[in-house]
Please model this.
Amino acid sequence: MNDQMIEIPRAALEALLVQAFHIGVQTVYEHARTASKNKLPQKVAKGMVDRVLSGETPVEQQSQ
Model:
C-alpha cells in the first residue's frame, strides 16, 4: 500500500462532508417515518433517531 499523502482541495472535502450529512439526515428521516408507519410509540422512534444522530448506533446496522 502506498503511504504517500495526497492533498484534497478544501472545496471537494466540504462537498463530501455536506453530501454525507444530507445522507445521514435522510436516513434518520426514513427511520422515523418507518417507525411512525409501524405505529411504534413516539418515544421509541425518537430514541432510534437520537441513537443514530449521536453515533451510538452505526447507520449501516439500522437498515434492514
Remarks:
- The chain has a mean pLDDT of 76.
- The helical segments are 10-37, 42-54, 59-62.
- The radius of gyration is 16 Å.
